[in-house]
Design goal:
The complex is a heterodimer. Chain A is mainly alpha-helical. Chain A has helices at about 5-25, 40-65, 80-105, 105-120, 125-145, and strands at about 1-5, 70-75. The longest helix of chain B has about 35 residues, at about 105-135. The N and C termini of chain B lie far apart (about 65 Å). The chains are: A mainly alpha, B mainly alpha.
Chain lengths: ~160, ~500
């Protein structure tokens, strides 16, 4: 998905303005002229200048190419339901992981995580569960056993090994 | 001095370290040979693992894996016309044309041998220049550092994007990310929105894993045109004819290595840009430029040595000033801080053995590249058979666990995913990622030196030019900003 430069410029200008307003609220240290607001403030000014130039560029391109230049250009994958689904699942499994790993535990979460992605990327159905289980256990062993990362046990906490 | 060298040898030749280097080699060769996985991604994936190692093995893993990955990127480029890493893209068409002419061995051999030579050249420059620069840098004050960082960031913008405006956008976004948290000269929480986790700032490691690995996996997920990876031609002895090439193209090898080291040392630009520039230079100065593109080995010799020398070159500013030369060393700097090996001239004075060990690691990595790289070429048929629809989900779960492992918090996993999505969207829209990374890494240093200098100068901007070195650096930075504009204006005047 490609946005026209002018759209980008407008979004960035909004961001820069928000930051400039927000940094005014930073506490200053009495007697200290160069406080916490000056650096992000300057960066936001720089961003605002870039944003203005992008808006100019984007509008100029619109004027030059007439009807060919669009506000939003959709990439080929946006028209393929399979790829859109793959994208949503790729991001979605991570949200699922963050929300549920403590309750479910790493191993069940990992198996579901991998199985969903394998299905989305077209791995042969019969292979999905075995590979997902094997890889989850491999990652669990590497991080939990060898590197001592406290991956949560969740539902399996009575079976800790 | 000799005591420090002896210590360095002992650390590097430690059996544990050797095992780490071998494992990292295999990992690097695999990642490099697999299209869609990059050397920077290899580094990002290594960070959570190196987190649990002593400093020298941690650095050894990164140095070896990246050297191997940059070479291995040539393999699928040559055999399938699909560069394994962006650093091989410059001469992929050339190498593939050689394969079609039945010269795959020669192309792969040139890639391997001259990668090693370029890597060793870059290492030699690193060994000679870094300590000298460090001695010089000991005298630097906040003014010099301010200009140095600013110049580095400027280089990153102009070198990594065709469209400097978008490079600046990327840089400013990175600097804003660096402002989050308590870590500022005033010690006041900024942009934390009341979140305790944001107080410490946005973690560099989850951010890097997100921007370099997750974004790549998202790109794979929406790839509507994936290509089959099947190799059918047998590969014989790749070392045949290498000596003849060395004798025939000594200037090209030297020029490629020198340009590569220089581009590597300039902040922001790494192996990929070094290879593109070297390939262009090679064609320009060649006696037979008409042969370029038809399967001519000369450009591969030159740019193949350039991309590996760039790797070592990037470490020069990283070790001496803490300013990364490319996105790999941007991650490395984060690792160095985690290992209490804060980069900067003091490291050369206080812990020279660690610096010498880094030098030795580079030499060893480039030497073992020759046999291991050869084995990788032989095994490439099998490597490319690994199904990517299994590999990519596995890498992503690995990233999740890796991001979690640094601070044991799910918050970092969230940071990683958001960074990945943002990086994907930015790159889809032609905004380069490298300036943002440099902005995040250098934002704190830029602000500290800026605020300190402003306080010292009492707001007088001319004081930034008072000291001779600061004045020179300042003038150079301003020149990089304004020269392109000035040149355009002059050209227009001359034309009118």
């Amino acid at each position: 998905m490609k946005l026209n430069d002018a759209v980008w410029g407008a979004l960035l200008l909004l961001l820069a303005a928000t930051i400039l307003v927000h940094v005014q609220s930073f506490r200053t240290i009495p007697g200290q002229q160069y406080g916490p607001a000056i650096f992000p403030g300057l960066v936001a000014c720089g961003l605002a200048i870039c944003a203005a130039l992008l808006i100019y560029d984007g509008l100029a391109a619109m004027a030059r190419h007439g009807g060919q230049e669009r506000w939003v250009t959709l990439a080929p994958w946006t028209r393929s339901r399979r790829h859109v689904l793959a994208l949503l699942l790729t991001v979605g499994v991570n949200v699922f992981y963050i929300l549920l790993v403590d309750w479910l535990g790493f191993i069940p979460t990992g198996v579901i995580y991998l199985s969903v992605l394998f299905a989305a990327f077209g791995v042969r159905p019969a292979w999905i569960l075995p590979i997902a289980l094997l890889l989850t256990l491999a990652i669990h062993t590497a991080f939990y056993k060898l590197l001592k990362v406290p991956l949560p046990w969740g539902l399996l906490k009575d079976f800790i090994w | 001095m000799s005591g420090a060298w002896a210590q360095a040898f002992a650390m590097v030749l430690d059996p544990y370290n050797i095992v780490v280097m071998l494992a990292a080699s295999l990992f690097g060769l695999f990642v490099g040979a697999m299209p869609g996985l990059t050397a920077t991604m290899a580094t990002a994936l290594l960070v959570p693992v190196t987190f649990f190692m002593a400093p020298i093995p941690a650095i050894a893993a990164i140095v070896t894996a990246t050297a191997m990955a940059i070479f291995a990127g040539d393999i699928p480029g040559c055999l399938l016309r699909m560069p394994g890493t962006p650093a091989s893209a410059a001469y992929t068409d050339e190498a593939y044309a050689m394969t079609n002419k039945g010269q795959a061995e020669l192309a792969l051999g040139a890639g391997l041998v001259f990668s090693a030579i370029g890597g060793l050249f870059g290492t030699a420059v690193l060994i000679i220049s870094a300590p000298t620069l460090a001695e010089f840098a000991l005298k630097f004050s906040s003014f010099e550092y301010f200009w140095l960082v600013l110049m580095g960031l400027t280089c990153a913008v102009f070198l990594t994007s065709e469209h400097p405006l978008k490079g600046f956008v990327s840089l400013f976004l990175g600097l804003l990310v660096a402002s989050v948290g308590l870590n500022n000269p005033a010690g006041i929480p900024r942009f934390t929105f009341g979140s305790v986790e944001l107080m410490g700032g946005i973690g560099l490691v989850p951010l890097m894993i997100g921007m370099f690995a997750i974004s790549e996996i998202i790109r794979y997920a929406v790839d509507t045109n994936p290509r089959a990876m099947i190799i059918d031609q047998p590969i014989g002895n790749v070392f045949k004819g290498m000596w003849r090439l060395t004798v025939k193209y000594p200037i090209q090898i030297l020029r490629g290595s020198a340009l590569g080291t220089l581009v590597g040392a300039l902040p922001g630009a790494g192996a990929d840009i070094a290879a593109w520039m070297s390939y262009a230079v090679s064609k320009k100065f060649s006696k037979e430029p008409e042969k370029f593109g038809t399967g001519h080995v000369e450009g591969i010799v030159e740019s193949g040595s350039a991309n590996n020398s760039a790797l070592a070159g990037a470490w020069i500013p990283a070790l001496v000033f803490g300013i990364p030369g490319d996105s790999i060393t941007a991650i490395v700097i984060g690792v160095l801080y985690m290992k209490n090996m804060n980069p900067g001239p003091a490291l050369f004075v206080n812990n020279p053995q660690n610096i010498y060990a880094v030098f030795l690691l580079f030499i060893i990595a480039n030497l073992i590249m020759i046999p291991l790289g050869y084995a990788c070429i032989k095994a490439s048929k099998q490597i490319l058979k690994v199904p990517r629809n299994v590999l990519m989900p596995m890498i992503m779960l690995f990233c999740v666990v890796g991001a979690f492992a640094i601070n044991n918090t799910a918050f970092d996993v969230g940071v990683m995913v958001i960074a990945g999505v943002i990086a994907f969207v930015l790159e889809e829209n032609g905004v380069p990622i490298a300036p943002a990374i440099l902005g995040v890494v250098l934002g704190g240093m830029l602000e500290d030196n800026f605020v300190t200098s402003m306080i010292k100068a009492d707001g007088n901007l001319l004081a930034f030019f008072d000291r001779p070195v600061a004045a020179t650096l300042g003038a150079m930075t301003l020149a990089v900003w304004f020269l392109p504009l000035l040149m355009r204006r002059l050209r227009r005047l001359a034309g009118a």
